[in-house]
Amino acid sequence: MRLLPLSMVEPGMRLGKKIYNSEGLTLLGEQIELTQSMIRRLESHGIDFAYIDDPRTDDIIVRDLLSEETRVRAVTEIRDSFRKIADDQLRRKTSGQVQVGKAFRKLMEMIMSDLSDHRDAMIMLTNINAMDDYLFHHSLNVCVYSTMLGIAHGYSQDELMTLGLGALLHDVGKTQIPLELLRKKDRLSDEEFSHIKHHTSFGFQFLKDEPNIPLLAAHCAFQHHERLDGSGYPRGLKGEEIHDFARWIGLVDSYDAMTTHRVYRKAMLPHQAMEILFTGTGSLYDKQKIELFRDKIAIYPIGVTVTLSTGEKGVVVDLNATVPHRPVVRLLQDEFGQDLDGSREIDLSKSLNVMIVGVSGEMVVS
Ligand SMILES: [Fe+2]
User: Fold this and answer.
1) What is the distance between the alpha carbons of residues 147 and 115, in angstroms, rounded to a whole number?
2) pTM given for the model
3) Does 68-298 carry CATH code 1.10.150.390?
């Protein structure tokens, strides 16, 4: 299978990997032959990429980090709890009435167990599914990324639990912000933006007294928009004043927001988002964290179509763990645009004179 932007997907192509709806259930199954109306339906769900079958890339299998059971449980748990919290606040009950601690701990155990089976895996593009409920999916993605990085960093099980809970609940305060504000397409006014910023303190207020939630996880909600140089919010904390867990979450939060389709723009590809994050090294994010993230993330995920500096086009078939930006590419088109049979591969970690200059039709180097 190979990953194509939806704009390049045509009727008659077969789906190489199933697509989940926003409940975490199957929207379109593997091997389905796509029709124009199915493609339009994917578009309307905000899906920007799909894995497509191609006989020359039959051997490429992209494994999910989470099992289907964990994914469905996670989406359901996050959605139901967040809705209950929003309702409760509306009815002006005390915030302590919805207790999410136990259920979220159980969920974190499932996530940690799934991820520890893939501890050497790279983080692949996860946003290929329907994202109608951005907040719930974003919370899960940020948790998966943070936990993967936490494992790579060497945190203990207890620390991973706290980091993961902080990540799952980092944006819980958004349940107190009107949806029309969160989904607004136009530029926010200063007043609207300062209202949205309150989601950090709302989250802290809710989580700090919540049974079974560590106080540190509440601080992750409070601090995840703080930045090293003091330019963040709500308190303008600097450097060491911001807890390491909140810094991890802040980093992957920005990455996931960029690589997800939003009402006001399409999803960026991993290398584009990574490049933007890198411009914040030392000022917004710490160097070591960004570097570990770069090493764990598949900038050119398996299955993605790339254009090489030789003019040839191909598909990423394997990742080099030590040099993730130089994968193995199977050539599918020569420099004249003629189709190839897929029998030739080039390992960019060895052919150092060849560069990736484009991904999925977008140019990396102009
Ligand atoms: Fe946030």
Assistant:
1) 8
2) 0.86
3) no
